[in-house]
Amino acid sequence: MIALVTGGAGGIGRGICARLVADGYTVIAADLSRSDVRDTEPQVLDVADPDSRRAAVARADELGGVDLLVNCAGALQDARITKLEPAVFRRLMEINLLGPLALTRLVAVGMAARGRGSIVNIASRAWLGTFGSTAYSTAKGGLVGATRSLALELGRCGITVNAVAPGFVDTPMTEGLPAEIRRRTLAAIPVGRAGTPEDVADAVAFLAGAGYVTGQVLVACGGRSIGDPYAV
């Protein structure tokens, strides 16, 4: 089985790649940076660039075609709406929403021809709303909506489409948060800890193999999305 994982060199992406390798997949770790995850096939990918997307899918086709697409590549750069630059908004849409949809379009053709396939989109708990993060929340909310619509469209072709929406996960991206913000965030998580890339990878692996589950959003947030996210 062939898995194409975008953002495969990043924190969550690395965890997903490692889990899928352990599960027996041939994994193409596609990223702007070269992945050093053992036993993966590295592939340079700019998810916002059409030629780069086509090259990544062509690489997968050489190996037999994509059985599992994990749209994990993402970018977080946001601001309050009065300070949000249009260029930043467009960039977040390209990377977090339009790029994943374009890749889905490319791989769906081969999946449909083989009569099987799984697509797992990495959304975010932010799709429920995050203060000061309108652009990112918009992109991830769009990805959730697309996941549900694509599940309806592609199910008859033997393709499942689901999403994982992680909450706060310890990655290089979150290491730079101010200490007080981190303290308050952790205090708001019912299980009492941050998530790990492996936690997200567990959810991806489940959805990849759950052939009767489609159009669903698995929120991997340690319970934070259940109620009031604020804590003192």
Describe this structure in words.
- The chain has 232 residues and is of the alpha/beta class.
- It has a single domain, classed as 3-Layer(aba) Sandwich (Rossmann fold).
- Helices cover 42% and strands 16% of the residues.
- It contains 6 helices and 7 strands.
- Strands 3-2-1-4-5-6-7 form a 7-stranded parallel β-sheet, with helices on both faces.
- Helix 1 links the parallel strand 1 and strand 2.
- The longest helix has 29 residues.
- The chain starts with a strand and ends in a 12-residue tail after the last strand.
Whole-number total of structural domains: 1
Summed over residues and divided by their number, the pLDDT gives a mean of 92
What is the molecular shape?
globular
Strand order of the largest sheet: 3-2-1-4-5-6-7
Global Rg: 17 Å
CATH topology: Rossmann fold
- Uncertain spans, ≥5 residues at pLDDT below 50? none
Strand content: 15-25%
Supply the CATH superfamily name. NAD(P)-binding Rossmann-like Domain
Count, helices: 6
